[in-house]
Fold these 3 entries.
Entry 1:
Amino acid sequence: MGEWKKFIAGGVLVLGAVLAMVIYADWNQAVQVISMGVNYIRYVGAPAGTIATEVAASSRQSTPARRNSPSPANGADAGDKDWPSYNKTLTSNRFSTLDQITAANAANLKVLCTYDTGQYTGFTSGLLKIGDSLIFTTEFDIFSINPNDCTLNWRVHEDYQPATPQGVSRGAAYLDGALFRGAQDGRVLAYDFKTGERLWATSIADPKKGESAPAAPIAWNGLVFIGNAGGDIKGVKGRMYALDAKTGKIVWELYLVPKAPGDVERGPQGKSTLDNSTWERPPGSPISGGGTWTSYTLDPESGLLYVPGGNPGPDFGADMRKGGNLYTGSVVVLDAKTGNYRTHYKLVPKDWHDWDVSGAPALIKTAAGKNLMVVAPKDGHLYGFDLSTQAMLYREPMTKVENADVEFSAGQPVHFCPGSIGGAEWNGPAYDPQTNLVMIGEVQWCTTVTLQTKEQMQAAKAGQPWSGEASLNPFNVWGKQDPFGDWAGWVYAVDADSGQWRWRARTNYPIQSGMTPTAGGVVFFGDMGGNFYALDAFDGHKLWGKKIGGAVGGGVITYLAGQSQRVAVSTGLTEILWPTEITTAKVSILGVD
């Protein structure tokens, strides 16, 4: 299709959105279609994917030593046939001991089959593989397909009014024959694994206030763990929940920012020392923020739950909430059985860039025997913490960092990197025990913010987006992003003990997908241009790469189907904030001859 035809097609989509808004009065649907039309035009002439790898000078003389077998402490199991949780293990290491696909044969990778959902949606779902089923979700649907040939086992559609126009779902959890997912109307839903029959539904959030539950839950010991999103909405407070896996009853609730008199209590409250002392606000300005929307990490040995906490609100208006704004910008550690607060790791001391801690941290045991938590927020850094002392061992930049300390003032534009949708967001780091390398994908895309006055921020209505950005353009609510194409992606492979990078790869499209290293010495990931890559885990050189669909923003997993190793990837992310190819959400399965 020529460029003029694409412009015409984009115009038709915009007109269709206006008609939908007028006829159906469905603002969410109208915004989604309008954004599709705009992004269709912005994507005209998008270049082919490119990737270039650099090996650190200190690593050029020696290749990281291969370890004979993955450490059990890092979650590998004997068969390793499945991918049963969002980040494979509850500890979120994402490493697979499968080794049929190697550096020697990865050049033979090809797409074996594809399942097309037929939906234009913000497809960021993680993927699960359990037995003869591959599980994933979209905003309104949950799917079970055959993990070998992509044929449909079952599909369940839910009808509801979503809380916001951002139609996303990060995936499902599995436990004891049941599947669990959050929904954009604030419910948590349970289904029979074999048939898709609905088992129960529990509300944990109020969509009328802008609250939703897009995160991928995790499940353990009869409990399902999930929190609510919406911390960018005025008056919305992030909370964390444990639900009984059999009945859906709320076992405990914990507010991730200070709870005030009159705030709804949906279940027994976990114990916390959190108070208002780190939230100095003008009169009538509510504490807002701390939502969660990706997934979580759990240490089965200690029974501790690790919760990544989102930004405070208003996002860019730091003077509206003076102080440290606990527990936003933190990893909050809870007793998984009771919800009681245990400790927290404050990563973003004072956030006025929308630099959430959103991706789940990984709990790893390094080659030197250290038990670490590694985590990558949107601030563009990789952090390593010693779990025995809680000491921060390293904080290293993984993408472009610019004007990070420049304060915002009303009416004065500030350009900063990573931008408000830069850094690392939906998917956290992976750990390869064979190389002792932590691997993380990053976005290099900068943002310009012009701050509103305090009076303008105070005048915002409850239940509305509350960023503090002065622009009237609705596409710039979270700041004005740099022009389309003035962006990049990074993969960094970092020594887990020292924090020093061994190799890094730069792509011409941002990287938001999951990273999946394997015992075959291959790491898999995709970019927002729809390009899928296999790199050598030891030095990062490209083994295979091809555009296989739309933007890759969700799950990348590997598993056995029969006796053959397969790789599955979710493609086709289409949503408001990202100018990506307009195409339907799909899951593709790859393998080698």
Entry 2:
Amino acid sequence: MEISYLLIVAFMFMLAIIDLTVGVSNDAVNFLSSAVGSKAAKLKTVLFVAAIGVFVGAAFSSGMMDIARHGIFQPSYFVFSEVMCIFLAVVISDVFLLDLFNSLGLPTSTTVSMVFELLGASFIISLIKISSGATSAHMVDLLNTDKALTMIISIFLSVAIAFVFGLIVQWLARIVFTFSFRRKLSSKIGVYGGIAVTAILYFMLIKGLKGSTLIPADVKEYINNHTGMLLLASFAFFTVLMQLLHWCKVNVLRIIVLIGTFSLALAFAGNDLVNFIGVTLAGLSSYQDFAANANGLAADQFVMDSLMSSAKTPVFFLIGAGAVMVFALYTSKKAKKVLQTSISLASKQNEENEMFGSSPLARNVVRVVTNLVNSVSRKTPDSVKLWINKRFEPLEEREDVAFDLVRASINLVLAGLLIAVGTSMKLPLSTTYVTFMVGMGSSLADRAWGRESAVYRVTGVVSVIGGWFITAGAAFILAALVATIMYYGGLPAMYVMIAIVIYLLIHSHLKYNKKQQEDNVDKKMQVIMSSEDQNEVWGVLQQHAAETLSHSLEFSAETYKRMFEAFANDDARPLRGSMHKIVDEKALMKKMRRSETRGLQRIDQALAIERSTWYHLCTNSCQQMLNTLNRIGEPMKEHTDNSFSPMSKVYVKEFTPYCNDIYKALMDINQIIVSGDYSNTMEVSERAKDLKHSLANLRKVQTVRLHQKTGSLRMDFVYLNLIQESHELLSEVRNLLRGSNKLFAPVVDEEVKE
């Protein structure tokens, strides 16, 4: 029996390592987004600073595992087998949920997930014990409901508080510095730098290192007793230092951002470490106590009173966890996706690359806030409005910078300060919630959400916040479900659940990598938007546009053939899948068109004007092809979903050659675009034209059939629609061939002359 539970503990350590990896992937956004979004330094430098902070924070962590040991449930009412069931359910649920959110690119809270997983697993085990008569205690005796409720309320209150403070402080900072801050730093940067670094230092002392096992007790006592004096001395010292650095032509704002990145990374590793390894270490402690003191008692008889005491984590566990976290920070692709979500929502107005769509809630919120702002504006004196608007006049910045260093420093300093204040008041806060919402508040204050992007940003924020609430509910339900299965299934069920979660993680990783390869369309655009060489921009843009058109043609050909074959076989499932893929393809096409249009703005004006007509003709044709496919598929799907009469064999036999010819025409045109060889353009175009004439004749035949009423009227209409839309598809394909021939034609000197 002991060997079986030892294997369980070993599996929990393996899952803890995975949990560290997926946890860092999600929480990396907390301390990286400001530095990466503002381009405070090269990515390698930012990662290096963050890695040092993560490793130091982990090594100096307090290692307190009290939340996992007895913060949610009372272990004196539980036996060893029940405690292990709770701990394993928490670890399994946590790994799966965090990986799911990482794959979706949504930041979530590791603190909330762990608390609700512990609560869900403990609740269901307690409910089973009470209902089965295994204990006479009540639910309030088995669970620390008051403490859990306090934690939950304080965590979710931090969302509103962080957003409001981010909004107010950033607005005041912009009034002081404006966007032309580089010309106005001389008289302000010293004081601002002193305040910022002192706040960061306070954050590190109070939040980051307050419970470290490596700092001597007398040093911590001195810091606690002389905090005010230390902060005052720090303010004076750093004010002078920052002013001197500015006079020496050092960018003080970059230093503040990098120090803030280090401090948040340190605090994250030092305090959130319990979210990743706390439960596993509590499981190890439980096993050690059972192995040493059971004295012949079975796992379902040994009471876990030992978990009531506090425990210190051995330093080698902390250092090992820090090493894993640093490795994950450098290698995780999903961390970059979560980071992209946060930066995109906080970036300057850039409606071409919005990650979220519009929603009714977002539209109503934007409309209400806009009306409120307009009403306040009407009552504000014109002179005041003019002065404020002048302070917010934006500058032309690099397009790859999401926001400037002033906002980046405010995000880091304010987030750290709010977390430190909450910690000093003994309120557990989520670093994810605070840092994310401070960033959203500051971006709103900075007017990064304009009329063209507000609905998308609000939708994104609501989606992320909704994901947080879903995290809580999903963590509770999933942990409760897993704990129930393992409680009744015993050790075999535990091994099965471990195998399932490992399989799901591997499958998720493979699926994510495949999706990343399919969606890897931005590298060429990065070259286009960063290069100053117009010839290079045009060459890369041509290649990018050719790949986009080729992809659209191949997708249209494959989808057209798949839908006809599915309808001919009366199979609704491929039709439903095709309709979903058409929606996704429309969104991708829209994104590519916006990006490529921005690329056209970076080439020679005369060439851009001459080629833009043909480019938009091609992209319009691609969009119309997708609309045509949608009009073909919708009646087919409805007909098949309703189990109406299937397509007659006469119609299948009659139209199959047309389907094959249309498919071949699309693929031939695709090959022309891919190869760049337009020598046989006329032959392919004439073949498509002849095919159109044949379809026109077939349409007349089908119209006659409709009047004869010889078959199913519903089927006749669907078949007629297929013929008509196939005719339209060929028209758009011919337009695409003609436009691409002009778009990708070699540039001659006359085209680029002024």
Entry 3:
Amino acid sequence: MSLKIPDPVIILDFGSQLTQNIARRVRELEIYSEVHPPFESADQIRNRKPRAIILSGGPASVFDPGAPTVDSGIFSLGVPVLGICYGMQLMAHLLGGKVEPAEVREYGVTPFLIQKGAGVPWTTLGDRSPVLMSHGDAILALPAGFQITGKTQSTAIAGMENRALNLYGVQFHPEVTQSLKGIPFLHSFLTDVAGIRPNWTLSGYIEREIDHIRETVGKDSLICALSGGIDSTVTALLCHKALGSRFQAFYVDNGLMRMGESEQIVRDLKELSLPLKSVDAGKIFLDRLKGVKNPERKRKIIGKTFIDVFWSEAMTLPVRPRFLAQGTLYPDVIESISHKGPSSMIKSHHNVGGLPKKNPFRLVEPLRDLFKDEVRRMGLKLGLPESFIRKQPFPGPGLAIRIIGSITPERLRVVREADRIVRETLSGHEISSTLWQYFAVLLPVQSVGVMGDQRTYENVIAIRAVSSQDGMTADVADLPHSLLGQLSHRIIAEVRGVNRVVYDISPKPPSTIEWE
């Protein structure tokens, strides 16, 4: 019997890339949340017994044909509702207010000015608290029964409420760190307005998922795609706890790993006492990727090849497994396919969109609704050492998506050696503790240079270094010029075939962290 899940805070997703940030912030307050599509009826939502409802932002305009909407009956459920950005505009629009394109579109951080008479949750913001605004439309007239609770220099209605109906709206984004007091605002809405007390912990999540794995697998066995990263390792520990001897982990060396990484991964995983079998499949992967330049094709080929290797290895086990565990996280899902709402697809991931439709295994994905920081905290609870927890993320397709264009043994050598230098140099610098990821990318261009008084025409390496909390957004790392100079000098001097190094200064969004 599964452990009882608390009644949720329901977040309706209107396509914002920040929807899951809202869910993450709510969970950080130890309150259970779920994300659902906006087209669910009011009766469906009532049956989920929500403690509160949050309407996310989104890229649409409420007056556009086909703009996502919601059953207006949710405003009569007697449940507190908070609309954020598009969610606030939609609330106003459906309840009789007026929304039109703003005379001045507002993007960036600006002070929020609380209006006289506004109580909780508005008082948590303080006067002139910085908030992140990102909207092209504005509310020009409130629905009946609402009052203005705040404004900005450019937006006359930046906050609204109907206390009698427990309906609230904010034009800013409280879920992002740029809104300095956004989290206290959310906390006050959930606790002071909705009356919710902490009901969700990672310890409870671990117990629930172990129980769920046992129920799902039953008396069968399960294998795990173990890459050596934090996501798949935590997945393997959960599955091993749940199933014991009916669990088998496979580490597949796809030939696309960083220098010396496969050997280190095998050593680390064996120290965790996981049942592990290492498979050298590099030749298979490289043969199938030969001549492939399109990044989506690369991911699809890698996903299918992983499954083929697992299937082949599964045939050698005494009992044929029916289940495959993967360390899929929610950022993987939201960037791959809009499975819960109209969020835009960015790219497929090898462990989401890259799997073949005729997958011989049933998938077990115990981390599918978690963010990276939650998985790291879970890893600590499961006994992983701090050094393992703090390893920077490495994509499942490996160096295949850090080589722009086709993959050859020579191009792999170049990016491996350059990446080694980037990691060695930055890991020994004090700035490394502030970085989420740092790596080298091999570009599909060559440039003219002069080396040893001779003309060269060789490869270009891009260095990527970003800071982030969860991988959903990322800022460019402000590396000192002297450090960038050191990286450039070492790469050009030590990596045969490179004569130029560039630094990527693109944040996410609009770019992604990886280049492919």
